[in-house]
Amino acid sequence: MNSRCEIQRRPGGGGFSGSPVTGSPAMGAQSRRRKMAPRPADYKLQIIIIGSRGVGKTSLMERFTDDTFCEACKSTVGVDFKIKTVELRGKKIRLQIWDTAGQERFNSITSAYYRGAKGIIVVYDITKQETFEDLPKWMKMIDKYASEDAELLLVGNKLDCEADRVIARQQAERFASRISGMRFCEASAKDNFNVDEIFLKLVDDILSKMPLEMPSRELSNSVLSLQPEPEVPPELPPPRLRCC
């Protein structure tokens, strides 16, 4: 950001003015005004997204950071990352979001990014059984490399392909319930459904472990709490639940 005063041109053109501004006091004050520097972030958090190839990790990251969606994204090679600043609980948080490759040949590269992560999003594709069966493998990676304090969130992506679903929501809920502290949510990067919610919920869980200047009654209320699945008649398709 350039904080220098802009040089005033004389009315009617003819080059820059080399003499002091002799116009109105308001104009002189405006020429000397400097832009305020943005408030620095209160926290800087690292989040990583893991999961098998093709589950939509890159799509989730780009939808959250840039609000874009690519129908035919190329597979991530090694790691990629995006930066996004959010405000939550009255704090400014700078997020560094790492998108990791799903292929096993990149595991030796991506393992280093687990260590500094405050939050880990584990993604599977609700239309592909093998991506769900790979979840224990990703949990082993977390146990081996990640901090015990890292917040975990399981995400079933591609909810826009409900007609092709092979992984029932209840299956994933049971899996997440066996992992201490792991939350679960379904989302669609394509439809932009629950994308902001999953990232903000994860950040909120991270912040809840940090000392904040906030009354305890406010800390006890989750900003984006998960809601239980409602009862629906058997002839109707289950509703797409939001994380909040």
Automatic annotation (TrEMBL):
Q: Which NCBIfam families match?
A: small_GTP
Organism annotation: Ictalurus punctatus (Channel catfish)
**Bias-annotated ranges (Pro residues):** 230-240
Member of which family? Belongs to the small GTPase superfamily. Rab family.
Q: What membrane topology is annotated for this entry?
A: Lipid-anchor
PROSITE patterns according to UniProt = RAB, RAS, RHO
Q: List keywords of the entry alphabetically.
A: Autophagy, Cytoplasmic vesicle, Endosome, Golgi apparatus, GTP-binding, Hydrolase, Lipoprotein, Lysosome, Magnesium, Membrane, Metal-binding, Nucleotide-binding, Phosphoprotein, Prenylation, Protein transport, Transport
Protein's UniProt keywords contain Nucleotide-binding: yes
Reactions the enzyme catalyzes: GTP + H2O = GDP + phosphate + H(+)
Q: Where are the transmembrane segments?
A: none
EC numbers for this chain: 3.6.5.2
Q: Which gene encodes it?
A: rab12
Write one Gene Ontology MF term. metal ion binding
Region of interest: Disordered: 1-38, 221-240
Pfam families, sorted = Ras
Single Gene Ontology BP annotation: protein transport
Q: Which cofactor does it need?
A: Mg(2+)
- A cellular-component GO term for this protein: Golgi membrane
Tell me where it mainly resides. Answer: cytoplasm
Could you tell me what this protein is called? Ras-related protein Rab-12
Its annotated compartments are: Cytoplasmic vesicle, Autophagosome; Golgi apparatus membrane; Lysosome membrane; Recycling endosome membrane
Which EC main class describes this enzyme?
hydrolase
